[in-house]
C-alpha cells in the first residue's frame, strides 16, 4: 500500500511538471473550439513571422467574446479569431481591439469591411441555409421550397427540423433570416411565420448536431426529416467525409433568394498584446492566399479574398446564395435578447 | 500521562487538522474564489451593487415554472433510480454469480459517455428509425413506429435512470457489503418476512447509503443540461439551460445568470441541510463481508438473480450495444472505417488529434483527478465525521450544484495573475474535474467511515498500535470499498467530463470527450461515425480501468 501511494504521488509530480516548458516568443491566438488550419499553413506562418503560434480554444464564438470581455484587463492572448457579425457589436463596444488596417485589405470587397475603423478584419464568410435530403425529394417528386413562406405549405408538413436560436448559432441565424424577411411589424410578422411553421409540425431541437445527425434523413443517419437548417458548405463537406465517395451528392443546400443568412467572421488584435508586430503579421497572413485557400476544407467557410481559389469539391458541389439575408451587426446586438425572448415566449412556452 | 507525550499528541493533532483542512483550502481557492469573482462582476459591474437580476427572476413567471419543472423531474428521476437500483444492490450484495465484477464495472460505463453520444445511442435503439422500431414495424407490418418516445418526459426519465443507476447500485452495495446480517437474522427468527423485512430492517440499515446516493442523483439530475436539452427537446428547460443562455447570448444577462446560479446553489444547500439532518443519529454495524455473498440456491433465488441481471442488461447494455453496433455499420453494412479513420489526418489539420494522444491526455487527467479527489475526499470525510465539523458537509457538494458556465467564467477572471495564473494551464482541467469528483468520493467514503464503531480503533490504541498502524490496518480496510467506489467515480467523472472542460480556456490538450465533441460538430457521416467509434474506445478504456481499480483494491488491502 505504501508503495502504491509512493508510485501514485510520483506519477502526479511527474505529470504536473511535464507541462512547465514555456516557449519564448509565442503569438497566442484565442479562438473557438472548431478552429482548424493545415499544419503546413501554421508552420509557414511561424517561419515567416519567427514566432510559435499557440492556439487557445474557448467553447464557442459567444462564449469566446464574453470571456474576452471579462478578461479585458489581462487578455488571454494576442489575437482573437472568429467573432462573427452576430456578436461583433458587443466586442467592439467593449473596446477589445487595437485598430489595424492591413495592407492586404485592398483586395477584399467592401461588402465585408463592416467595421470602418478597422478594429477587426474580415476573414471568412458563410451562409446558413436549408439543406435537403436529395433522395427524398427525388423519390417523392417534391419541388424544393423556393422561399421561407413556402415552408408553411402543406406539402412540407413534418419535413423540417430547425435548431433553437437560444442554444445554437445556426438556429439564431435562421431566426434572424425570418426576422429580416418578415419583419416585426405589419400584417404578417416573423412570429406569425413561426406560428405557421409550428402548425406545419416543424421540429425544434437544441443544437446543430442533433438536428443534422439524429433527425435529418440523409443517408447514414437514423432521422426521418428531409429538411434541416445547416450551412451552404455542408453538402461538399458531406461528400468529403464519405467513404466510399458517393457518385451523386446525397444532400444539397437551398440557396434561393432571401432564404440564407450570411455570417462574416473577423479577427482582431487584442488590447494589451506585447507582440503587436507578430499580431499584425498574423492579420495580414489570414488574408493571404495560403490561409484563405486553406479555409474551405478546414473550417467549411468561404474566403473573403476573391483571388483565393476554391477546392474542386467546393466549385462542384457548393452553392453560394446570390442574395442572402443580412442584418446590421448593431441591429442584431441591440435586439438579440428581445428577439430570442419573444421567439421563446411565442414558440416554446 | 506525562507532559511531553501530551504535547506531542497536541502537535500531532494540530498537524492532523492541517491535513484535514487541505480540502477546505482547495475549495476556497478553486471554487469559492472564482465563484465570488464572477458573482462580484455580475452583481456589481461598476462597483455598485445591482440586484436587478433577482428582481427579474422573481417577476418573470417563466423562471418559477422552470424551477418547478427542474425540481420535480429531479425528484422523480431520483426516486425511480433508487427504486430500481435497490433490488439490484440486494442481488449483487447477497449472491455470488459469474460475471458479477464485469457487470458492476459495465454498469458504471454510461456515466462516462457524453450526452450527445447517449442521445445517439438511444435514437439508434428506440428512435423513429431505430433498431427496435424497425424490427417491430417489419415484424408486425406496422406503418408507423410503435415506440414514440422522442422528445418526451418518459425518455428524459429513462436516460436519467440509465446514467445514474450505477451511482445508487455501487454506493448502496458497497455499504451493504460491510453491514452485519445479525439484525436481519434475528428479525427473521422473530418471524419478520417479505415487505416487513425490507421496511423495518433493511431500509433503516441502508439509510445512510440510500440518502448519500439519493442526494448525489438529485443534484445530478437537477443540474442536468444535455439530457434534457437533447432528448427532451426544447419544451423542457432547466435552470442550467437558462444560465447558459443568459451568459452567452444576452448582453446584460450576467446578473440574471448569477442570480439563477445562486438560486440553484441555495436549493442545493437546503437539500444538503435536510440530508445532513436525516443522516444524524445513525451508525451502522460493520463486520466482515465475505460470508454475505453466496451462491443462489433455491429456484426463487436463482430467478431473482436472473431477473435483476436481465433488467440491468436491458436497461444499461442495450443502448451501449446499440452504440457499439452503430459504430461498426454504415448504411447497413459492416465496416471498421470509422476506427481506422480515427488515426488518419487527410487534411493535415492542426485540429486533428491522434487517438493515442487523446487517450493519453484523458487517462493522465483522470489519474491526476483520481489521486487528488481521493486524497482530498478522504481528508474531507475524516473532517466531516467529527460532529463539530458536520455543518461543513454541504460545502463539499456545492461544486456539483454550480453551473459549469458560471464557474468557467469565474476561472477566467479569478485565476489570471501569478501565483495563480492558471487560466490557460492544462493543470486547470484536472483541478476542475476534481471539484466535480470530490463529492463522489466524500459520499462514498463517509457512510462507511461513520459506521466504524469508536470501540474498534480504541481497542487497537489500547493494544499499542500507532496512529499509522490504526489507520492502515483497521480503518483503511473498513473504508476501502467506499474508496474504491469513490475512486471509480472520480476516474469516470474525469474521463467523461466535458461541461467544465468546455468552458475553460484550453491549450492543445484535447481529451477524448473533447475530440468527440469536435467530430460531432462537423458535417459528414464519417465524422459522426468517428465520434461514435471514439465513444466506444472511451467506454472500453473506462471498463478496463474499472477492473484495474478493483484489482488494486484487492492487492492493496486484501479481501477481508
Ordered list of secondary-structure elements with their pairings:
The complex is a heterodimer of chains A (349) and B (560).
Chain A: H1 2-17, E1 26-32, H2 39-49, E2 52-58, H3 61-70, E3 79-84, H4 88-93, E4 97-98, E5 121-133, H5 134-139, E6 160-163, H6 169-182, H7 190-199, E7 203-205, H8 208-215, E8 227-231, H9 234-240, E9 251-254, E10 261-270, H10 276-287, H11 289-299, E11 302-303, H12 312-317, H13 329-347
Parallel strand pairs in A: 1-2, 1-3, 6-7, 6-8
Antiparallel strand pairs in A: 3-10, 4-10, 5-8, 5-9, 5-10, 5-11
Helix pairs in contact in A: 6-7, 7-13
Chain B: H1 3-43, H2 52-59, H3 61-94, H4 100-107, H5 115-126, H6 131-139, H7 153-176, H8 182-189, H9 194-222, H10 226-232, H11 239-249, H12 253-279, H13 299-327, E1 329-330, E2 333-334, H14 337-342, H15 355-384, H16 393-401, H17 404-414, H18 428-450, H19 455-462, H20 467-496, H21 499-502, H22 512-520, H23 525-557
Antiparallel strand pairs in B: 1-2
Helix pairs in contact in B: 1-12, 1-15, 1-17, 2-12, 3-7, 3-9, 3-13, 4-23, 5-10, 5-13, 7-9, 7-10, 7-20, 9-12, 9-18, 11-12, 12-16, 13-23, 15-18, 15-20, 16-18, 18-20, 19-20, 20-23, 22-23
Keywords:
heterodimer; A: 349 residues; alpha/beta; D-Maltodextrin-Binding Protein, domain 2; 2 domains; eleven-stranded mixed β-sheet; 13 helices; 11 strands; 39% helix; globular; B: 560 residues; mainly alpha; MetI-like fold; two-stranded antiparallel ribbon; 23 helices; disordered N terminus
If you had to describe this structure to a student in words, what would you say it looks like?
The complex is a heterodimer of chains A (349) and B (560). By secondary structure, chain A is of the alpha/beta class. Chain A has two domains: 25-125 and 263-317, D-Maltodextrin-Binding Protein, domain 2; 127-261 and 321-347, 3-Layer(aba) Sandwich (D-Maltodextrin-Binding Protein, domain 2), CATH 3.40.190.10. The longest helix of chain A is centred in the C-terminal third of the chain and has 19 residues, at 329-347. Chain A is globular and about 60 Å long. Chain A contains 13 helices and eleven strands. Chain A starts with a helix and ends with a helix. Chain B has 23 helices and two strands. Chain B has helices at 3-43, 52-59, 61-94, 100-107, 115-126, 131-139, 153-176, 182-189, 194-222, 226-232, 239-249, 253-279, 299-327, 337-342, 355-384, 393-401, 404-414, 428-450, 455-462, 467-496, 499-502, 512-520, 525-557; strands spanning 329-330, 333-334. A two-stranded antiparallel sheet of chain B has the order 1-2. In chain B, strand 1 (329-330) and strand 2 form a beta hairpin. In chain B, helix 1 (3-43) packs across helix 15, helix 7 packs antiparallel against helix 10 (226-232) and helix 9 (194-222) runs antiparallel to helix 12 (253-279). Mean pLDDT of chain B is 83; it is low at 1-5. The interface between A and B is large, with 77 and 79 residues.
